[in-house]
Fold each of these.
Amino acid sequence: MGKKKSGASSMEAQSTESVMGRSGNGSTDTDIVIVGAGVAGAALAYTLGKDGRRVHVIERDLTEPDRIVGELLQPGGYLKLMELGLEDCVSQIDAQQVYGYALYKDGKSTKLSYPLEGFKSEVAGRSFHNGRFIQKMREKAASLSNVRLEQGTVTCLVEEMGTIKGVQYKNTNGQLVTAYAPLTIVCDGCFSNLRRSLCKPKVEIPSCFVGLILEKCELPYKNHGHVILADPSPILFYPISSTEIRCLVDVPGQRVPSISNGEMNHYLKTVIAPQIPSELLSAFMVAIKKGHIRTMTNRSMPATPQPTPGALLLGDAFNMRHPLTGGGMTVALSDIVVLRDLLRPLRDLNDAPALCKYLESFYTLRKPVASTINTLAGALYKVFCASPDPSRKEMRQACFDYLSLGGDFTNGPIALLSGLNPRPLSLGASRIIFPIIKAEGVRDMFFPASTPAYYRASVN
């Protein structure tokens, strides 16, 4: 066996190891190994399996996840879900249709509707319990005979002479197993243990989310997400079932008040509660009293591809943005569509160097959609946060006033936000947006057809 590129502990001390999926002549009975079966991994497994690939998915925990993020799918993401044949995964989970946003500032509010004219009636955003959605996609992937979904903890990538040949993992029996395949796709999420083997990540932590669930109350604007431009930073509300409303309180920086010593309760009651819309205040206070308070660190990480023969990164393991705009799942599903279309004409994945060169075009072709959503998320978070800087205060107020105009004035920005029209040239530039665009890569984002990888994909 070749050397290992370690992710978590390499478990070298174990003396026995079984090797599977590889015959004596070096061929495998698996085309693609996928690490992780979250939104990206499960959707990818179904997509590639449906195209006839033999897929082996290894997921650390196949029980239903319980998270406070990944609960809002923008309409653009729903369109990608339809394109992948996965739209039924939002049915029978009490998912709620979302038709836009309500924006609050200083006691005033405005409704921003998604520009859904011209789309089928079912096209809208969807909000739901993240775990229910993921379980539906896992079931869909596992229903294909050529997709194997297995619980196991991947410990490292297996490398031979600079090429990733598969992964080593510990199965539920405690055995160390090696799974080989011509292509390994790492989708192990925001806490990825393997991304450092495939890129040089620059992870930033702009803030944390504090999550509560409100019950027995109605949102002021039905079937809309609510964004409160609070001090110090935004507060979000959106339905996740027919009886529950998710509240996410953004706390800037890397530290949140302690839940265990009562700091969090005090902060929510004294700093946040006075800024909550009156219709939701009573349910908000009840949620604090119940004490089911969750926290989640928000991460931002530009995509920094480092093409590696035999392997690819996808999902939050590869690219993250502030979750304020709920764009993460839209980016992941869009990336899967791009990757599916690139892989479809390839019958043989065994020429690792040639495949690696060919898949460089993936990084180019994903840029316009991903960078638009990433840029908008970063820009809006900065604009929506309170600041003592007079120019930032003016920008925040100007943004609210402009969006309050409604109609054609807001259709453009909301089409970008929703993923319905993720076109970089629609973003324009400002003192806040341009530095983010620069980090994403101006040429790749605005002019993907001018990059060499684009032409390689076009002619192959």
Amino acid sequence: MLFKSITMFYTMECFFTLLVIMSTVRPGLSITTTFNVLKYGAVGDGKTNDSPAFLKAWKDVCKSKSGTSQLIIPAAKTFLLRPIAFNGPCNSKNIYIQLSGNIVAPATKSEYSGSHLNTWIGFSFVNGLIISGKGTIDGRGSMWWKQPCLGNPSPGTTCRPPTAVTFNRCNGFQLKGYKSINPARSHITLTNCIKGIITNLKLIAPGESPNTDGIDISGSKEIQVHDSIIATGDDCIAISAGSSLINITGITCGPGHGISIGSLGARGESDIVEDVHVKNCTIIETLNGVRIKTKQGGGGYARRITFEKIKFVRANNPIIIEQFYCIKPMICPNKTQAIKVSDVTFKYIVGTSLTDKAINLNCDQNFGCSNIVFDHVYIQSAVPRMKVFSFCHNAHGTASHTKPKLFCLLK
């Protein structure tokens, strides 16, 4: 009897072992393969150029045929990277970067020589990319802010320093949890990406740092940005031409220039932005609040845009539609063609303004703005004894439960 019981026990154990083996080799099972940058020669002392080691590791990550390939950037290390490009397409359906350690940019401009200056860290054609962790990306951008050129440029030269991290044609990506500080230019730029999620990030730079946008979105669709802190020197989030189905929620913005759509129509181009929803955001002491900006002479449209449940705290210029946007107004003539702005809704908005023009709807004289809706919008002065008012130029729509009153809004 004892022999029979022992036999049955081992028979069952072998059966379950066989099931486990079968389950690990059945077709379609996702297997994760990890690659640690330290094993490829990265030092992580913040002084050694670790770019070659990262590129070697990336090569193996990208060619791996596992369901998920994982690049490990370990904690308690600081990795110096010179301008670097992580290119796809890759074999794995998911590329996971565990950002536990810190990444820093070069400390001198000379270390950028010979590199394409558009971006410091670039990802191109990488689908299913996930970057997650508690690490920090430090762009060391202060050396660029006063002089954005390499070397000694001739008078009148216009230079653009590198964006910290760029994603080009990366579909199905996720950015979660990490911190970005002091970029030379924008923290994050998205170009021609589809289905992306950005959540729980901290994007930080001094309020006086020029052109340090938090997130720039262009030519991209189905992008979600939520539950993040953006305190920087330019737009917290800027949505540019070719973008649609953009959802922004739970953002704390400030300092900075607020949340912007545009500028659209530069150089007479035909630009399109549609289906943008900004909700549950707090905007604190920014140069602008929520804004749509277009330039004269362009074509296309900006439509189906909603700003909902926004709170302004001592913001300058809280609500703006500006169809005469120009960096140098004295050399920007009026033109007959313009971006068509329509179906824009502002609702359940409260807060305080540091300027007296709390609502500014400055629309094109030929096309104007149509179906502009204000509903339960209450903005008051943050300055004692200063009154706030609204301004409209060729803006058409409706307003209810709104202060300051919008008597200027045409039907």
Amino acid sequence: MLIEYVFSVEGVEGRNIELQCPITVPLSQVYMVLWFKDNAGIPLYSVDVRDKISRQPAHWSAPEVFGSRAKFNIDKSPASLLIKNLKRHDQGVYRCRIDFRTIQTQTYRYNLSVIVLPEQPVVLDRWGRHINGTKLGPKEEGDDVVITCRVSGGRPQPEVRWLINGVIVDDQYEQNSGDVIENRLLWPTIQRSDLNAIFTCQTMNTKLVEPKETSYVLDMHLKPLTIKVINPPSTLVADKRYEIVCQSTGSRPNAIITWYKGKRQMRRTKDEILDHNTTTSALSFAPTTEDDGKTLTCRAENPNVNGLFLETDWKMNVVYPPMVSIQLGPTLVVDDIKEGDDVYFECHVRANPDWKKLQWFHNDILLQYNGSARIIQSGQSLVLQKVTKQSAGYYACSAINAEGETVSDQQYLRVKRKCEV
């Protein structure tokens, strides 16, 4: 009577597999161990144990089947046939028969399926071009990612799926032609948070080995997120040199920073990259009195992201000593002033901060308000009533603010006698 045990096993092409053929009695009770394939009546491997007492068991492997790729380990428990470098044509039904000296023959039958692994996945862009390297992009915010994973070969038919950061997002694939399987992924409207996301095409047709994968890291061009002038001074002193720092974050690659005064670009700058998305720019300049009230603009832009930039404005408060000038009243004719005429001067002042005190001088002597002498100061005007010859001479005015005092140029007053022609 024949005792037979039947098993189904899977092996992977190119790997090793062991088919067990347990021997449950002492080897002295074993006569022969024979391996057959399919319905062949001739063994492809044999172990002769009939004369083990005087010599080692005799092994034979059919060279046209396994040859040196197979080895039966009779001393192992359980005994097994090791098949190295499995070939796809090794698939079939194998039978191990153990003939004993005194007990019934035992048979172990294996239905061996050989798994043929698929090729390494390749990834194509939306135009069907192969994507080289390990980067996807660079893309911009709002773009769609459209990529196709293509896998050739494999038995049984492999699964093809997309993972993002290790999470399956698309496992719908279709057979293209022949043994080619494709999975087209549409990942719409990518965001800043998708930067450095890992897109992985994975294929597998067995759990005996790890899936084959091809991965890409998403690269993105990002617009600046912030821009600001760092601790700008509340006031600037005219003609003193300053270094003003502007900082931008969030741009990839780092932002390019430009400075403008009004519409004119400022060139004397020094840029520094602090980290992968922070850039500073230091502007060195000496403001003039004409810059008071004007606006400095710091602009950050990523030239790889069309039309998108950030900017911040800073209105300058430039302080300076008064700028003073004196002028004879516009209704007067400088060469036609006679004794008894009324004369007035105007003192024109431009200052930041505003002037606090205004003074008048006659021949470098400070003039005081004197109603009886008919010298009247009113606002920024000096009025001389009914001038005399003694009123002639050099007049000047001065203005004082927190930045200092400035005296105007002198204006000469000539007074004619009434009888002068």
Amino acid sequence: MTMGDDDYTVDDALIALGFGKFQLLVLVYAGIGWISEAMEMMLLSFVGPAVQSAWNLSSHQESFITSVVFAGMLIGAYSWGIVSDQHGRRKGFLITAIVTSTSGFLSAFSPNYLSLLLFRSLVGLGLGGGPVLSSWFLEFVPAPNRGTWMVIFSAFWTVGTIFEASLAWIVMPRLGWRWLLALSSLPTSFLLLFYKMTPESPRYLCLKGRTSEAINVLETIARLNGTKLPSGTLISDNQIELQKIDNPSEDTVLLSPRKNDEVETPKGMGSNLGGISSLKMLLSPTLARSTLLLWAVFFGNAFSYYGLVLLTSELNAHSKCIPNKLQTEKSQDISYKGVFIASFAELPGLLLSAVAVDKLGRKLSMSIMFFMCCIFLLPLTFYLPEDLTTGLLFGARICITVTFTVVYIYAPEIYPTSVRTTGVGVASSVGRIGGMLCPLVAVGLVHGCHQTIAVLLFEIVALVSGICVMFFPFETMGQELQDTVSSVKQTDNA
């Protein structure tokens, strides 16, 4: 096989087709999924205190309502990543939408604490599929526009957080927490309504050898965008690299004998890649450094972000350490106001992300914002007035929104198509461990009058995360997405 001058890759096709009507439709669909995930996560700030009051739960039982969601997400993020890498992105987010919408709605009818934990853990299992939607959208975006449009995609999360805070403020005092759970599960059902209209990722199809199907999707993009596909034959990175081995050139002289074996791996893997094989690939010499650092950053992001969401109500409710029962009602009022205000911090956070991601690059923008977050949190080691506390949490939330947004752009970019959703899914799973632990810190320690220790823990996590970002092996700004492990190695060595 020889590669002709008229051959083109999916990246070449997407650049030629541009970002148009088709991508906007994909953006809206994936964005609704992101809104629904944000709503399900944000409602934890309200449901936990309400259920604690209604069922006379301890602070540990309250924090466990949040922790089981993250436990479910930990399993789901890993599982759905493997499903979508083996069976397609569409099947991945179909299953997650069914699980999330059904269990979310049923949790509103929980008769007791244990049944609520069960349904919320199932919601978490479904929410673990969030990275599948972001990877699916990413694979339709031309390389030059990727950073900007992924920031815009992240804006749907912010819409979800603000909408949930508004919904809680309206619904909770009048109708109670059960209605909030039921109404918050509705957006996910929209994914099911329009599922049949969604296309499979042409990059995934091409990797699987289903080139004719990939061309059909690309032709649909061309028709909706009013553009034309490049002339010639669609080929994948696999074919390009196999051609290079058959016809060695100066570019491939640097390839070691081991690399030749690695080129064959994705092709076989494309048809039957098991979960263990995927994990081994993520921890292979080529990807191990990126993977381990990414796990640390996802852990730090989830721990910090969800911790800040919970701290917004907890610190204001415990501005002076008083017995829990005396401030229960007061904390309910403050939680609506505080979380609602803090949610708006994500808007400037997104604007900063949009500017920084393609100007400063992924690595620099993340590290700066982690260190800035530490600066905002430091004064909170002391008891401060409510307005000042909210202001500092607002600033910290801006910073952590930037890091969260940028890492979700960076993570899919550093992995090849063959393990992309698995890689992001596993990293997201590790992040969920941070999410499981943060309620114990944000709720448990603050309830126990240990605010200084709680805030210092967040300081350490953010600082270590910022340092980890600095050690990422390469910057992905403006780079094309890779399809195979060996092409990642070439990018790394470039």
